[in-house]
Structures are given as structure tokens and as C-alpha cells.
Amino acid sequence: MVDVTRRHFIGTAAALAAPAIIRPAWAADTVKLGCLFSSSGTMANIEGRLNHVVRMAADGINAKGGVNGRRIEVVTSDPASDWPLYAQIGRQMLQQEKVAALFGCWTSVSRKSVLPVVEQNDGLLFYPLHFEGDENSKNVVYVNSPPASSVLPAVDYLMGAEGVGAKRFFMIGSDYVWPRTINKQLKAYWTSKGVAATAWREEYVPLGFSNFQTLVNQIRSFAAEPGGQPIVVLTVVGSSIPDFLREFANQGIRATDVPILGLDMVEADLEGLDTAPLVGHLNCWAYLQAAKAEANTRFLADWAAYVKAKSVPFSADTVIDPMVSAYDSVQLWALAAAKAGSFDVPEVRKAFAGLSFADPSGYTLTMTGENNYVSRGVFIGSVNEKQGFDILWQSPDAPKPVPFSPYG
Amino acid sequence: MGEGVRFWILSAFLVVAGLVQPASGGTPVHDRAGFAVSLCGDGAAQSRALDALIRSSGEDAVDDLAAAGLLLRGLLERRLVCLGDTAILLDRIGASDGREVASGAVRPADGGRSPVLGLRQRALVETALGIATLVAGETVELRSKGLAAVERRMAGVPDAVLARAQENERDPGLKAAIGTAAQGAALSSPDPVRRLAAISAVADAPSGAAVSRLSALKSDPAYRGDPAFRAALDVGIARVERAVWIGNGLALLYNGLSFASILFMAAAGLAIIFGLMGVINLAQGEFIMVGAYAAYGVQETFRRFAPGFLDLYLVAAIPVAFLAAALVGILIEALILRHLYRRPLMSLLATWAVSLFLINLVRVAFGSQNLQFGMPSYVSGGVPLYADFIVTWNRLFAIAFAAATLVLTLLILKRTPLGLDIRAVTQNRDIAACLGIRTRRVDRLAFGFGSGLAGLAGVALCPIYSVNPGMGATFIVDSFMVVVLGGVGTVVGTLVAALGIGGANVLIEPFYGAVAAKVIVLAGIILFLQRRPEGLFAVRRRR
Amino acid sequence: MRGAVETLPVTASRRFVPGLGGDPLLAGVIALVLSAALVIVLLQPAPYLVNMVGQFAAFAILAVSLDLVWGYLGILSLGHGLFFAVGGYVCAMHLLSHAYAVTGVAPDLMQFMGWKTLPLYWSGLTSAPYALVVALVLSAAIAFVFGYASFRSRVNGVYFSIISQALVYVAMLLMFRNDTGLGGNNGMTGFPLLFGHPIGAPGVVTGLAVATLLALALVLAGARALVVGRIGRRMLACRDDEARLRTLGYSTTRLKLGIWCLSAMIAALAGILYVPQVGIINPRVLSPDLSIEIAVWVAIGGMGRLGGAVIGAVAVNALKFWLSAAMPEAWPFILSGLVLVVVLGLPNGLLDLATLRLKPTWLRRGGGLG
Do residues A262 and A283 lie in contact, with contact meaning Cβ atoms separated by under 8 Å? Predict the structure, then answer.
């Protein structure tokens, strides 16, 4: 693996050694894009994939002649799941490398730490994750969905006749801003629907928590109480997801007893699990690997080929939403830059309005220019035996994103 | 797993017979092709067909139910392919052709779609399939599986099904079991005698759900009107509540014990190394990881060379993981720590560097994703023991493993020449050296032994936690607290400390949450150690 | 049993000459620090570089604070990140409440926590001097409570290290909790203003960096004055043989406690200066790994030499900033290799390279400190 030294950082080296040295002039026919995804630390397993996707997308664009007559050069880094380091490397990329745009961050913390940097330097950060919403910076492109456009439809589905007619809710999340905000909005939403506060419970665990015995016991007692169909709204992240699922299955709870709606659960979290006892649990994203679209077939084939050709240390046949969103990010940027005929951030930003792109999910992504959000479709997936998700439901079209939740 | 597969193969055979027989009669199921087409429809159509099937299942012909069972099984396993207005059943997922349901003819299934079940429909399918198996299953084993499935969804099962199954059942044990289930189902029966029997039947199988079911009857008019009913219900509820309370207590004990055994295994090797050499081994967590990766290696080897014995890989991994971790440990001792015994704080930094190195080495070599372990049946799932108390096999495996580790460690320390040497050097290095013990050699072997124990912990943790390069890092602070609290150099102290910390965490967690539990326990230990720095079981300490 | 609990090996005391002339290395480092400040003021390099130098200086202050207790007193704290965080958090609270008072725009944190007004314990933090006092007093108080309990019951050596590590870990878990009230895992970010000026403006960046460099120079000079004085001699005596010093009638507990609290305050100062430059504070600074890393800086630079701590902090962080972007895959290997080389071959850190005493430790009697 290892694209160890891409030599783009000689500039930094020189700058560190002797600030006065004039940095070598770069070939005028390239434009740089920067990646801020960790390949070590707690986020490495899922975030690490995105570096490779951005490269793949750039290679694809370069093969078609690049953007505005220039080749794209991708600069990767390793912020090592260390949030301040995201900001530091982001600053380095914008100021030293003069990257045209940044693609990065998974957790909300890392985005929040990079946010002031891109705002101060008027850079562009493409953020490929769904998140808690309530933010709208002109320097960040929110490529994935805010909760009002993705989580609420999924919860609605579960509460409705088509789903399970859920009446009671056990929320369990990692203790940080995304789960807490999601749960806050959900509670407000349920209140607006006339659900009593006694119908839900809320528990938080530390990040990286793995000992779910007691909590699953609690979920079983909760499920046994009267009051209607219970569901679990799961917002734990990272390595806690497989650990939770394993304990849940081992204690004999099936999706038909108490379904889990795993809001951050992706195909990669099921790697290494026996999913037979987990069949039927749900997740919701703007893309699922099973999406039926020609663009998806092509994307999956491209990724498999790329993994093989570059010996990428990740599974060739697992593709998750953030990977596609990162891919979309590069495409959107390239489209906007081509439309603007420039790589200047203000110009590129102006070009966002009216942009559209048919992405692997089968929906056409659009940007209105009103905000930096992207319209995406909504999928509800159901875990199958093969460590993947079947599509249970998908939205008829890509709903208009709602950055600021009306609830909470 | 194996059992389940056998079950379904049998049921498939059973039902194929039913499928090719000519259909007869007029209830919805008898239109097999129509039923299959409904299953190919949208959620509402599926629900309608399934509801109809369940409603009529008390009277349907046995072979009709068997045929329906085959289709439902196919639907669950996504072997039912819908092509236009025909439904085709494949023998296995991904097969290129299968039998057309209506005609039984073999047809290619290209271009068809296999419907995905919604949760509501999935529950109905499970109920209907349970009924079909209970009524039409060929063996006792199959039928009791069917009964178990039906019992999970008792609310949606018509009374006639159980009555019919009980009547037709030949096996006396199963017949009685069906009878009990039928009794329990009669909680809202108009017949007061049956109701009282139902209350006592429900109370005989206590669970949280039983409490809810019985408590719901308190709003029944009979509760106020009929003193006998009232008394029976109150007694029943009290019985169930007591049983649930005991069951929860057992679960608490079990949770505490399983967490404690994880802590103990992570800390046992550390205790020996720390006690003997005063080396703070920050790479101990990475030895656990090495053990887990060794287990993965064993699994892959089995998969390639002895797939028939794959289920045994976890057992075979025990010596391999021990040796792998011990080897890495001895290597590190020989290359690095040997030079640092005079400088414990520097050896601390050195082991930190080693841990950083190992994590990243494994990351570069294997990638950072979770390893794919196929879990043998003896470490997946669980068995309900009493009320809501479920013994999960993976945790039981860890507990047994920890007990074995404890015995092994004590045996080696107390009964072998190496153990004698380790104890001697731990107590007084200089005198031991004077007596001719080669202390350096003892150090190395003991370090290898301690690392090997960590490797064993890695094997025990595979079925519980995800295995990835960073897995060891989570254990380090906890296991040091165990060692220091227990008192350095005593395995028994480590055990007691692990039990105490594990128990305290599990006790506090339900009240204040997982984070606060950890904070409270750790803060308590810090305070305790300020009062009593030598820990619970002090061997001897110079000041 | 032994090794772990024994006092540190006796080493030959260094020659002590009052004034900076006795330590050309330290004099050189201070001169470099001051000239860096001068260069920044006169030449106005790119804000990015200035900011980086400022961060390095904050790390250097942190390293000096640890060196004071480890190198001179033999107490290895693996929890110094705690004091750094105290400074950082109080500074962040000041920045947020100051900006709130000036602009009237409620910070993200308040919206997220659902606060209509800032809670009581935030009151007064709009005033910078008050915030400074709070940060210093709070860090000293925490250090005092923890230190008093530990030193009185004579917890030392690796025990102290482990327990201090657990302390910082507990603090991290506590701050991870949203209910603790300081932003949980996200911590605090998005500080718009410093003393009324936009925090990203080149002038502010320069000012912060220069202030941090000056603070570093002051801390170094002060620490030097401390360690060459009578207290410094007692510190070394305590490091080398605490029991003997105690037998001679000195209260080692009081000595250790005093220096420990001082060190905590210096670490807090580093945190105060660090946060406005990096623009975020969150529980990551409380992770046990970061606290070990501080010890690594000191060990690599050369413990027991104030200049060494500075060199170590700057060298490791410069490498980290550069390599985690330039060759992310190689950085952890380089860091671990560096630590092993230093620990095994250069008992006094990189300074050994300068003096070319490359003989391995284990061939020399006495060895380095440890």
C-alpha cells in the first residue's frame, strides 16, 4: 500500500528548515486537492478508505483530460484521529500547498476544528458525512444529509404502518454532539407527534465503549414493558457498533422483536460479524451498496479495480455511503470549477448554484445555491445474511435539504 | 448453526413432496401460485396473504401448510425470485435456475428480483413459518423448533393451531409442551378455569414480558369482580416479579464476572512482569492484539487446509497465540528492555514506543479494518437460563478461559522450577542471584510468560470484541489499575482487584451510565491508592 | 518488587554555576527564542509559519514544566496533560464569553447545551486577568490535592506515573461527558475574538506567537534561577536519594509539593497560550497518549536540561507536523524508532549527539536518569 512519499511536501520541509528559501515553482498544469482523512487512530478503519476514493475520483477526471486543462493532484495526510491536527494540517494544506479544495473529516469534532481554518483562509471543505445539521458555513459543502432530511424519514417509516408501528424508543449513542443532537431533535419530533416522554429512554456510552452487556439487558427489560412496539435508535459510532450488534444478537433479540435503527451503521461495520441473527435491522443513508443504478454498477467495478490495481488495504467489495459522498464531492468540485472556469474559491462557490450530478445512488444530486447543502435521496437498508444491506425503502426523489432542523 | 441448517434441509425435503402434489380446496393457501404471487407483491399484499394464511392455519391441510412453509423459507432466505407474474424458487441463493412455483417446471431465473421483507412482514413470515413447521414438521426436533418460533409470537397465533398441534402430536414431551403453551395463550379466554390455568402457566415461565402480560390483566373487570381470579393473579405476579428479580441479580453477577475475567486476563501477564521487573509494560495491550491476530492466522490456516475442522480453530489458536505473543515479548525483552532494568521510567517510554510500532506494523501489514472471524457455534448465541437471565456463550468462554488462565498461572508459579525462580527473584533479586539463579534468564522467560498470557487474552476476546490494530490500547489504563490495586506481584491480588473493579462497574452502570461508572470506579481507586499505595495485597515494600 | 519502588539511581551531580553562563545550551536556546520573536516582529513571515512557531513555543513551555519535576525531582508525571487542559479550557471559556459579551452572538456551545445564559461558573471570565488567575489557581489547586495525597503517603516512582496517568484518563472520561458542561467530546472551538480583535488577523497571530516566545524565555530564565539556587540543590538531592534528604531533616513532601504545583501552573500557562493559536480545545488533550508524548519530548531532548526539553518539544512537533502530512505512513515508525534510539543509546537525549557521547548506556556505570 502506502503512497509513502508523494513529494509535494518538499515545500513544507524547506519552509521548516529555512523559511526564506523560495519554494520551487510547481508545474503550472496541475491543481491540488487536499484530503483530511485519518489512516491511523480510532477512525482509521472507516475514514482511511476515503483517501483512496478521492484519488480514484481524481484519476477518473484526469483520464478525461482534467479540469480547466489542468491535471488534479491529490495530497493526502494522516491527522491520526487527533482533532487539533486536522486543523493544523488543514492550515498547512491551504497556506503552503495552496490546495484548491479540501475533502475531509468524519466526526463532527474534526469538522468543527477545521471550520475556523477554512473560514479564515476562505477555503472550501467538502464534508462527506451525514451530521447533526444546524450549521451553514459558506466555506463548507455539506455533501451528505442533515438529520431532518434523512433521520426523520427513517423514523417516520418505522412508526408508520409500513414499518413496525413503533411506539417506544430506546436511544443509545456515543456521548458526543452528533448523537445528542439527533436524539434531541427526535425527542422534539416525537413530542410534536404526541408521543409521551415516558415512551423513550436515552443512554450514552463513551466513544470506543465495548462492554454492552448491561445495556442490552436494559433494552430487553425495556422491550418487555407494556406500551407498544419498541425500537432501538442506535447512534453509537466506530468500533462500538459491531460490539453492540454482537451482544444484541447473542442475547437472542431478533429484529422482529426489537429492531435497531443504526444511524451510523454501514456495510463496513458488519465486516467480521455473523449477520444471520441480525437480519432485518435497519440503517438509513443517502447511498447503499445495493442501490440499483448503472452509475452504481460502474462505481463498484471501478472501486474493485482500483483496490486491485493499487493494492488498497481495504475490502474491494465493500462500499459505504461516505465513500460515494467523497467521490461525489470531487465530481461536484470539478463540475463547479469547470463551470466557473477558475479554481478561485469565490468563483467556484458561485458556480454551485444549479449544479447537478447523477451519482452512484441513482439520484441526481443538485445544489441550489441557497446554501451549501446537496439534495440527496434517502435509503432505508435492512441487514442481510451477507454482511450487507438490502434496500427496504427509498425516497421517490431527492428531498430538498433542511439545514436547520425545525425540531429541537 | 449446523443444527439450523439441518433443520431447514429437512423441512425443504418435506415440503418438496407437498409442492408437487396437486392442490385441492378453496382457502387462500391452496392457490399456491396465487400465494407466491402475493409474496412477490408490495408490503401490503404480502401482509394480506400472510395474515390470511395465519388465520386459516388452524384448519388448513397439512400439506398445504408444508408447501407454504417452503415458500416462506425461500422468501426469508431470498431464494424466492419474482419474474413477471411467476414466482420461482431456487435451491440456493444465486442459483441460475429453479422450480416455478405454479407448475413445478425448471426455469431460468435471470432478471428476476427477490423481494426484501419489511419488518412487519418479516414478523408475519416468522409466525407463519413457525406454525407451518409446528403443524407439518416431520420430526419431533423440527416441530419443537416450530413451537419455539410460535411461542415467541404467541399473540398472533390462532388458538386452533395449538389445539390442533397438541391433538396430532405423538411425542409425549412435545405434546405437554404444546399444552403448556396453549394454556398460557388463554389469558384472555372467557372460561375462568382456563384463565386461572393460563395465569399459573405464564407464571411458570417468568420473564419481564410475563410481568407485563399479567399486570395488564389488573385492568380486567374480573380482577375487581372475582376474588379467586384476583388472588391467583396477585400470586402469579408476585411469583414472576420475584423470579425476574432473581434473574436480574444473576445477570448482574454474570455481567460482573465476565467483565472481571476480561480485566483479569488483560492484567495477569502485566502483574507478573511488573512484579518481577518493575517494568511498566505499555505494550501489553499490543500483545493481546498479537494473540488475536495469531488466532486469525490459525483460522485462515484451518480454512485453507482443514475446512472440516474449522470450528475448532479457536481451541487450536490457544497454544499458537501464547507462543506468538511470548515470542514477541522475549524478542522485545532481549532487544530493548534488557538494557533498561535500572531505569524503569525509561523502560516505560521504550514500551510505549514498542506499542506504537506494533500497532502501526500490524496496520500496514493487515490494514486497519476489523478482522473477519467466523464464530463457531460454541461462542455465539446464548441460552436463557432463568427468567430474563441469558448466558451468552462468548462471555462464558471468556470466563472459563480466565479461570483456566488463573489455574495455569498459579500452577506455573507454585509448582514449576521456573515459578520458583520467578518468585525468588521477585522477592529479592540480589539474594536470588547470589544463590545461583540466572536472574536475566528468569527475567526473559517471565517476560515471555507474561506476554504469552496477554496473547491468550487475545484469543478469549476474539468472540467478544472487534479485532483491529488499535484494540489493545483500550485495556492499558484499566489493567494497570487492576495490577496496582491488587498489589504488585500477587496473582491472587490481581484476581480480587479484577473482580472488584468489574463488579463495581457493572453495579454502578445501570444507575449513572457507563461513563460515570468508569469515572467513579477509577476515581475511587486513585483515592484508595493514595491511602494505601501498596494495594490490597501488599507483599512487602521498602520505603 | 525491587526496581519498581526503589529510589532512582544516584548520578554524579552536575556542576552548578549560577547565571546563564553555566549552561551555554540554555543560554543558546533562550537567545534563539528571543531572536525568533525578533524575526517574527521585523520580517513578518507567513502567518502560517508564525502560528506554527507559536504552537511550538507553547509545547516547549509544557515540556519545561514536565522537565522541572521529572528531570530535577525524579517525578515522572504521565498526567501533565491535565494541567495543560485546565489552562486551555479556562482560556477557551474566556475567549467564548468575551466574544459573547462583545458581539452578542451566542456561541455554538450555548445553543447546543440549550443554555439561555452562560452558567454561573462562567461569570467573570470575560475579564482576561481574572481568567488567568482562575486558570493558574485551579491548576495549582488540583495539583496540590493530588500531590499532597500522593507525596504524603510516599507514592513515587512508577506508581506515581501510573496513578497520574489514571488521573488524566479519568479527567478525559469526565470531559467526554456532555453533562460535564464544557462541550463534551467536541470541546470548544470557533473563537472569533481575542481582546476585541479578530483572532485570525495577522497582527493577532504575530502577537500571540511573540507573547508565547517571550513567555517561554521567561519561564526558562525563571526555572534556571530556581534550579541553580538552594531549592534546586534540594531538588536534585531529593531526586537522587529522597530517604537521605529526609533523614537530614528536610521536608521532602513540602519540597515536592511546591515544585509540583509550580510545574502545574507552568503547564496551565502553556495551555492558555496554546488554545487561541490552535483554535480548539477538547478532551483529546487529556488522552493518556498526549501526556506520554510530553515525556517523550523531554526524553528525546534530554531530561534534566531545561534547554533539552525545549529542543525535544520543538524537534518532535516539527517532525510531526511535517511528516504526518508528508509521509503519514512513516511518521509513527519514525517516532517510535526515535524514542528507542534515544532511550537505548542517548540517555541524555539528542544532546548526547552534540557532545558525541555515543557510548551506549549499558556500558557506562550509572547510566542516565530514569
Answer: yes
Distance from CA of A232 to the nearest CA of C (A): 21
Tell whether A407 is within 8 A of chain B (Cβ). Answer: no
Task: Determine the 3-state secondary structure of B456 from DSSP.
Answer: helix
β-bridge pairing A30-36 and A168-174: unpaired
Q: Name A384's Cβ contacts closer than 8 Å, sequence gap at least 6.
A: A275, A279, A390, B78
- Name the average pLDDT for chain A: 86
Q: What residues in B contact C337, CB-CB < 8 Å?
A: 353, 357
Distance CA B325, CA B312 (A): 20
pLDDT tens-digit series, residues B349-381: 899 999 999 999 998 888 887 888 888 888 888
Q: Which residues in chain B have Cβ-Cβ distances shorter than 8 Å to C149?
A: 527, 530
- pLDDT digit string, tens, across residues B259-317: 999 999 999 999 888 888 888 889 999 999 999 999 999 999 999 998 888 889 999 99
Q: How far apart are the first and last CA of chain C?
A: 17
H or E element at residue B440: helix B439-461
Nearest to B15 by CA among B203, B197, B142: B142
Angle between helix axes C157-176 and C288-301 (nearest 10 degrees) is 140
Name the closest residue on chain B to residue C340, using Cα atoms: B350
| Cα–Cα dist B125/B123, whole Å | 5
Which residues, including other chains, have CB under 8 Å from residue B168's CB and lie 6 or more apart? Answer: B135
Say how many C-beta atoms besides its own lie within 10 A of residue B228's C-beta. Answer: 10
Going by DSSP bridges, is the β-strand pair B106-108/C193-194 parallel, antiparallel, or unpaired? Answer: unpaired
At residue A370's C-alpha, the angle toward residues A364 and A372, to 5°, is 65
pLDDT of A27 reads 52
Please name every residue paired with B83 in a beta bridge, in sequence order, or none if there are none: B86
Burial of C271 (0-12, 13-18, 19+ CB in 10 A): buried
Asked if A78 lies within 8 A of C324 by C-beta distance, the reply is: yes
Please check the confidence at residue A15 and state whether its pLDDT lies above 60. Answer: no
Do the bridges between strand A140-142 and strand A379-383 make them parallel or antiparallel, or are there none, so unpaired?
Answer: unpaired
Q: With an 8 Å Cβ cutoff, are C185 and A96 in contact?
A: no
Contacts of A158 (CB under 8 A, 6+ apart): A164, A166, A231, A259, A261, A282, B119
Average pLDDT over residues A296-322: 92
ipTM of the complex: 0.86
Q: Is B394 on the interface with A (CB under 8 A)?
A: yes
Strands (E), A143-222: 168-174, 200-205
Radius of gyration of chain C (CA): 21
Residue C121 φ/ψ, nearest 5 degrees = -70, -5
Dump the DSSP string for B270-329: HHHHHHHH----TTHHHHHHHHHHHHHHHHHHHHHH-GGGGGGHHHHHHHHHHHHHHHHH
Selection from A107, A105, A109 nearest residue A125 by Cα = A105
Residues from chain C contacting residue B367 (CB–CB below 8 Å): none
* DSSP-based three-state secondary structure for A305: helix
* A387 φ/ψ sector (left φ>0, alpha ψ -120 to 50, else beta): left
Confidence of residue A321 (pLDDT cuts 50, 70, 90): very high
Query: Nearest Cβ partner of C292 from B336, B352, B484?
Result: B352
Of the candidates B338, B342, B536, which has an alpha carbon nearest to the alpha carbon of residue C4? B342
- Cβ pair C115, C183 in contact under 8 A: no
Residues 6+ apart with CB under 8 A from C26: C20, C220, C224, C305, C306, C307
Distances (CA, A) of C178 to B417, B515, C172: 54, 11, 12
**Residue from the list B361, B477, B519 with its beta carbon closest to the beta carbon of C165:** B477
pLDDT tens, position by position, C189-240 = 888 888 888 887 888 999 999 999 999 999 999 999 999 988 998 999 898 8
